[in-house]
Amino acid sequence: EAYVTADQVANISFSVWQDSVRVAEGYYGPVSPTRPETVSDTSLYRIRSMTKPITAIGLLILMERRHFKLSDPITDFLPEFERTETLGDYDPDGTLFTYRAPYPPTMEQLLSHTAGLGYWSAAGGPIDQMLLDAGISASPTIDDLVEQAARVPYATMPGAEWHYSMASDLQGAIIERITGQRLGDFLQAELFTPLGMQDTRFYVPADKSERLSGITRRDDTGLISVPGEDYRRAAEDKTYHEGGHGLYSTQSDYFRF
């Protein structure tokens, strides 16, 4: 509550659960600058990378249905990676030295962020920067995303170490290739509807927009409200959804998950 009062953050929703019982909760701050009502456990948030575990569970559902084994190579579903090389070293001028990996990542490594993949981030190493420069996150289709990603070397040998990566986006691509469904439609049928997650989607319907939390950032003057993406644009019309981010959800729904 003090963080909200001191303008450190715009709002906070929290709850603590133990043995399926909510033992503590708190809700502070307005939903958004245009919605003065206090946030609640049904306020909608952009859950960003909390999308990742949901996508992983979706892929594991397909594993349980025997579409693959954890030891299978990802190239069974993503043949674009059959020729992907691995970064061995690089010079300060950006010259990369790569070699052919003796084996592709496994499905288990893809699920545990040990596949050797990078992420599009300026804060990472040269592979992350290559992904960022290539604009892979803005690929028009999931096939384009996979194809572009496969042209970038692995940051490390598959299985060698943990590296937070675009693995979840590739998990989403595999789900789409196995099922022939859009990721959002698959998750809706297999997780959101069975679990009663009524507010979890890759877009926000117009009749729920009043519950969507605003976005703020800090500068020298304090908190500033910033415009978000068009939450309806979208995802309703996009040809694919990213497995690594993009879902909207509520505290109540995520507990159900």
The low-pLDDT segments are none
**C-alpha-based Rg, rounded:** 20 Å
Q: How would the global form be characterised?
A: globular
Oligomer: single chain
Helix and strand composition category: alpha+beta
Order of helices and strands: HEEEEEHEEHHHHHEEEH
Output the strand order for the largest sheet: 1-2
Helix count equals: 8
Short description:
The protein is of the alpha+beta class and 257 residues long.
Secondary-structure blueprint:
Layout lengths: L1 H4 L6 E7 L2 E8 L1 E3 L2 E4 L6 E2 L4 H14 L20 E6 L5 E5 L6 H5 L14 H8 L8 H10 L15 H13 L3 H13 L19 E5 L2 E5 L21 E2 L1 H6 L1
Antiparallel strand pairs: 1-2, 3-4, 5-10, 6-7, 8-9
Helix pairs in contact: 2-6, 2-7
Describe this structure in words.
The protein has helices at 2-5, 51-64, 107-111, 126-133, 142-151, 167-179, 183-195, 251-256; strands spanning 12-18, 21-28, 30-32, 35-38, 45-46, 85-90, 96-100, 215-219, 222-226, 248-249. β3 and β4 (35-38) form a beta hairpin. It has 257 residues and is an alpha+beta fold. The strands form 5 sheets. The protein has a two-stranded antiparallel sheet with strand order 1-2. Strands 3-4 form a two-stranded antiparallel ribbon. A two-stranded antiparallel sheet has the order 5-10. α2 (51-64) crosses α7 (183-195).
Keywords:
257 residues, alpha+beta, two-stranded antiparallel ribbon, globular
